[in-house]
Write a structure and sequence with these properties.
Shape: elongated
Helix content: 10-25%
Number of strands: 46
Mean pLDDT: 85
Number of helices: 11
Structural class: alpha+beta
Strand order of the largest sheet: 1-2-3-23-22-21
Largest sheet: 6 strands, antiparallel
Radius of gyration: 41 Å
Length: 738
């Protein structure tokens, strides 16, 4: 303050300050150290005046200037970067091959399980193998005897039938073994009798990462589908950014951000937004944006799931723009300007006022979106506040650049209809037939996830796969019934060829068995089709004995994935929702009408909608249906609104809105848009543009209002021009010159 006071005293010793009118160009300002040319607006300083004010300039450059805003964020594991490991069968742990905290590879053996069910399967395989071998040998011997005429053809046919049934049973048992993930080479050794070692269930790592497990020890009994290991791949993680609804339109894919974490104060990381959420949290009404981040080295894990922090989101121009130092920008009311150095010699310097339109600001620089400045120009950065007073107009007048800078918009005072309206809170509501919740129809564990955040899917796309023993057993039922039907059909054909030598009762028994197998095939096919198995996949099971290793979960609509809360290997049950998919091509707005206004709402009534995320846009629509109950807690009635045009496309579910219902209208002689009104305490004002281009703040009285216009009962006349946008910036300028 002392330095500034001394400078002002020094300047006053050189300057003879003219009346304020001189700044309007009425007469040149003559002093011992300065003069101003009203025609050109150029201020000339002598060497002594320049020295006292310590005037300094900097060069105008081109650069990318970033703007910043902030949001909270947390580190999360990708859906496929974290996995639970569960056994398919109950059993006792006999071997543990990894310790908590060890790195494992995908497919690595983690533990081995001794299971009674596995031992029963081994016994079933051996029994089926012995029965198949015995039946085959018997059929071969009877075939030789039948050729010699020693046995009847019916006896041979029965032996061949039993051999085929035994072979089918062995085939089904083999596929049970393989479905449990046991080695086929080991199976051959077990069946041949060469392999007499115990058979244990292997527990394998589904992904690469760091393995952790609960309180496991050799000998512990574990249940089927119990989470016994958890594996986290910390090389790649997700940064989940929580965005306020009003800011959601400010973020976009490809936007650069930096983030800090509470666990690492003073450290920051860079990331790029790669996904945007497609729904808002129904409780917090926050939207999600996502970025992918990586840990720098496997042995230097800094980022871990669960860490929280803050994100600084940059809004950077894609191209360089003209920028000036922030110290070079001065304000005259609502106007921003710089002082451009025209000439500079040892004896004197000349400076000219140049109005500008500013953009983003950071790092000590402000980008210019308007104004006649070019790289290489020099602007005053020190001593400018003392010089700027010589360019103030003393009135609220805007040039073209300033009007553009504040987004000035004008409207004429005129007569309009003032509507009788009432408002209600609302929210975007994706229709129920455009929402799909995917669940596993059977118990199992998630084996594979085929989608990403905000993934666009088509109807019929496989979005995940579930490993389920129940599903495998259903396929084995279908395969067994198919093999049985084929066998009975073959026997039936042979019986038909044998003529009267076969008893009628035997023929009827085989025919009944063939029909029973056909019924079992049809029933099992229907059950599998209801689980999402296609006709082609059913054909492969029956004709090629090609079983599906996992149960596919398919999308039933076209849409966008909006939620998913599971990870690989996680146990799922039929009642649990896994994915939610929304078709955002068209949505409604659900308005919550207060009980006192419920009698004023009717189907077909016109409304206007303003979304929190885009308050400048005014959408129109009509009420298409009403609820029939007033909520006991909310005391509101639901009204569903169909919005005209395509204004609701891609609007996330639960986006907040304000709904204005029109109940009637009446004319008013003098009205202005609501945005023109400025309120201080109990008084209201508008900014009126005069014929000389200046703006004056005028007190007014307001009568009726709707959501767009206000009736002016005193203070304005029809035909006058008022500001309807940029009003708050005009108020700032008014306060500066008042």
């Amino acid at each position: 303050m002392n330095r500034t006071f001394a400078l002002v005293l020094g300047v006053l010793s050189f300057f003879v300050v003219a009346p304020a009118g001189a700044h309007e160009g009425h007469a040149p300002l003559l002093t011992r150290g300065a003069s101003i040319d009203p025609a050109t607006g150029v201020l000339r300083l002598s060497r002594e005046a320049r020295s006292i004010l310590d005037v300094m300039t900097e060069e105008v450059t081109e650069r990318k200037v970033e703007g910043h805003w902030f949001a909270y964020a947390a580190i999360e594991s990708p859906w496929t970067g974290s996995a639970f490991v569960s056994p398919l069968l109950a059993g006792r742990i006999v071997k543990l091959h990894v310790q908590p905290g060890e790195n494992v590879k995908s497919g690595q053996l983690l533990a081995e399980l001794d299971s009674q069910e596995l031992q029963q399967l081994r016994q079933e395989l051996l029994t089926a193998k012995n029965a198949a071998d015995l039946a085959s040998d018997t059929a071969k011997r009877l075939d030789s005897a039948a050729n010699a005429g020693a046995v009847a053809g019916q006896q041979l046919l029965e032996a061949q039938n039993q051999a085929a049934q035994a072979a089918n049973a062995l085939s089904v048992a083999r596929r049970k073994w393989l479905a449990l993930g046991l080695e086929e080479s080991r199976l051959d050794g077990v069946l041949s009798g060469v392999d007499q070692q115990p058979v244990y269930m292997p527990i394998m790592a589904p992904i690469e990462g760091v393995a952790n497990h609960a309180d496991l020890s050799v000998g512990k009994i574990v249940a089927p589908q119990e989470h016994i290991f958890e594996i986290a791949d910390l090389r790649t993680l997700w940064l989940r950014i929580r965005i306020l609804e009003k800011d959601f339109d400010r973020i976009q894919i490809g936007q650069v951000l930096s983030f800090t974490l509470s666990a690492h104060p003073g450290k920051s990381w860079l990331a790029t937004v790669d996904k945007l959420g497609a729904a808002l949290d129904p409780e917090t009404h926050l939207a999600d944006a996502w970025a992918t981040v990586t840990n720098p080295m496997p042995d230097d894990i800094r980022l871990m799931p669960g860490m929280r922090g803050q994100v600084q989101i940059s809004q950077t121009n894609t191209v360089s723009r003209v920028a000036v130092p922030t110290a070079a920008v001065f304000r005259d009311g609502a106007e921003r300007f710089v002082l451009v150095e025209q000439t500079s010699t040892k004896e004197s310097s000349e400076y000219k006022k140049q109005s500008i339109v500013t953009g983003q600001q950071s790092g000590g620089f402000i980008e210019l979106r308007g104004g006649k400045l070019y790289p290489g120009d020099r602007v005053v950065t020190q001593g400018g506040h003392e010089l700027a007073v010589f360019f103030t107009k003393g009135s609220l007048r805007l040039n073209e650049e300033t009007a553009k800078d504040i987004g000035l918009s004008l409207a004429s005072v005129s007569g309009r209809l003032i509507e009788d309206v009432f408002d209600a809170d609302g929210a975007v509501d994706v229709p129920t037939d455009r929402r799909f919740i995917a669940s596993s129809p059977l118990n199992g564990v998630i084996e594979r996830i085929r989608i990403d955040r905000s993934h666009a899917v088509r109807k019929g796309d496989v979005i995940a796969e579930v490993k389920s023993l129940e599903f495998h057993n259903l396929q084995l039922e279908l395969l067994g019934a198919t093999l049985d039907q084929q066998l009975q059909s073959t026997v039936l054909e042979k019986l038909k060829l044998s003529g009267d030598s076969i008893a009628r009762r035997r023929f009827l028994d085989v025919e009944a068995a063939e029909r029973d197998a056909a019924f079992r095939i049809e029933g099992t096919r229907r059950r599998l089709a209801a689980l999402g198995v296609t006709e082609e996949e059913l054909r492969k099971i029956q004709t090629d004995s090609q079983l599906m290793p996992t149960l596919p979960l398919r999308a039933l609509i076209d849409g966008t994935v909006v939620t998913f809360t599971k990870v690989l290997g996680q146990v799922v049950r039929p009642e649990e929702p896994l994915f939610e998919i929304h078709d955002l091509s068209k949505s409604f707005v659900e308005a919550f009408v207060a009980e006192r206004d419920s009698g004023r709402v009717q189907v077909g009534q016109p409304v206007r909608i303003r979304l929190v995320s885009d308050p400048e846009a005014v959408l129109t629509g009509r009420v298409i249906r009403l609820g029939h109950t007033v909520g006991t807690a909310s005391r509101t009635l639901s009204a569903w609104i169909e919005v005209e045009g395509d204004g609701m496309q891609q609007r996330p579910h639960n986006s907040l809105a304000r709904v204005t219902f029109k109940a009637g209208e009446s004319p008013a002689r003098t009205t202005v848009p609501l945005s023109a009104l400025l309120q201080e305490g109990n008084r209201r004002f508008v900014f009126v543009k005069g014929g000389d281009g200046t703006f004056a703040r005028r007190p007014i009285s307001v009568g009726r209002k709707d959501d767009r216009f206000a009736e002016i009962t005193h203070g304005l006349a029809g035909g006058e021009t008022v500001a309807v946008r940029g009003v708050f910036q005009l108020q700032t300028g008014y306060a500066a010159i008042r």
